[in-house]
Amino acid sequence: MRITPSTHYQYERIKPDDDCMHEECGVFGIYMEDDVYDPAEAAYLGLYALQHRGQESAGIASVVKDDIRLYKGMGLCAEVFKNDLDRLYGGRIAIGHVRYSTTGDSQVLNAQPLVMSYRGGKMAIAHNGNLVNTDVLRKKLEEDGAIFQTTLDTEVMAYLLAKNAKDGMVESIKKMMEVVKGSYALVITTNDTLIGVRDPQGIRPLALGRLDDNFVLASESCAFDTIDAEFIRDVRPGEIVVINKDGFHSYQTSLSLDTALCIFEYVYFARPDSDIDGISVYRARENMGRRLAQAYPVEADLVGGVPDSATPAAVGYAEESGIPFKKALAKNRYVGRTFIQPKQSLRDRAVKLKLNAMKRNVHGKKIILIDDSIVRGTTSRKIVEMLRLAGAREVHMQISSPPVTCPCYFGIDTPSHDQLMGAKNSVEEMRKIIGADTLNFLTKEDLLKTVEGAGCNFCTGCFDGHYPVDIKKACAQTQKLDLTQVFK
Ligand code: AMP
């Protein structure tokens, strides 16, 4: 879900420190027929496992009797639910959300889930992803009298759902899916039904699990392990899954041949112990490292990875090359993601706060250092400097993805075009800026080979600017839509 102006052209105009438009989130939902867990407690544990997908706010909505109770706040799960989880106990269904944003609209109003009253009762909705035509939709709806309380595109979806609710929630979701464009993995609960929805191209992941006779939905399968649930399968692109007292039902809306799961989930974002669309995140990363080793062999004393996201790729590189894997950097576990700092000066400090060179391991050594991506280049520059100060003789940087050259409009936090190091510089220029002896990137072709066999195709927009939705066209089409006809 996103919170600021949304057309392609508005994005391009966003100023350097204004890179607040992108959101990353995690969603969770559970329907409990029996009493293995209280759903609110399961949601809490599930969100905890998805904390890497969002650290800014967390929320749980729980269906208790005929009511939906909501508790949400700013901060990590442990902080938000410190004293108040028990007020959500006693229900059958719970959904939850963790949100990560860089700056801007960081207020509890924009935290999720959103709870709304509509003609069918109450509903709560949690969204991971990013719509690209919300501004146009919002404006049209506002002209028609709609009032919005938040700046979230999620609220626009909730409004569209409520608008058409007379034909039942599934029909209403289908209609909404015809109108909204972009990425969305949704968990929704009404007073008696848990629903999961994945956008027609499957841009963001959504997994389905089972805990005895109870169903669970989560952005990533790692959340199931935390509550001893078993992974069943991924929700398919364009699929609506419905869980209530009548059991489990699936509705497949228009099948897109052009599926486009975000490849950055494998590169960086997802947890290594998750499987997404049939591919283990850990294995994919390990293979990225192996392919780097095949493509760019270097004579060195050790292979290190930038912890934690690049560790599997470094292990893969070490195994393939026969060069030992050694810790080159130690990570302070109590520092959140570097990007969370809104200003460059703070981001610079944050790298030092988060990572430190292992002096005794690197002194006098030729090092191959693997990182998963270069975005602004802040991290790599600082790390190379750190390793040199610690006495490293040579630093060969290898990146397990291609240079990030284009912003993401579909739910991964990347800064605007002019802040992306790979957008403005050749690899040689980047090497000079970060100060490494050599710098190499995995090619897009090699990256795609590491996820071969997945149940879908991939969005590689951040590496090549080919996006799964033509944003301009989607906005123009939405502009022409007569919503009163769609939602008759
Ligand atoms: P940078 O310093 O801007 O080049 O950031 C690159 C580093 O940030 C890499 O070490 C990645 O592990 C990490 N990273 C990549 N993408 C993201 C993201 N969307 N949010 C937070 N961290 C990221």
Automatic annotation (TrEMBL):
Parts of the chain that traverse the membrane: none
Record has Ribosomal protein as a keyword: no
EC number of this enzyme: 2.4.2.14
MF terms (GO), sorted A to Z: 4 iron, 4 sulfur cluster binding; amidophosphoribosyltransferase activity; magnesium ion binding
Active site (UniProt): C25 (nucleophile)
Cofactor(s) the record lists: Mg(2+); [4Fe-4S] cluster
Catalytic activity, as annotated: 5-phospho-beta-D-ribosylamine + L-glutamate + diphosphate = 5-phospho-alpha-D-ribose 1-diphosphate + L-glutamine + H2O
KW Metal-binding (keyword) present: yes
Superkingdom of source: Bacteria
Co-factor remark: Binds 1 Mg(2+) ion per subunit. Binds 1 [4Fe-4S] cluster per subunit.
Protein name (record): Amidophosphoribosyltransferase
Species per Swiss-Prot/TrEMBL record: Guopingia tenuis
Phylogenetic classification of the source organism: Bacteria, Bacillati, Bacillota, Clostridia, Christensenellales
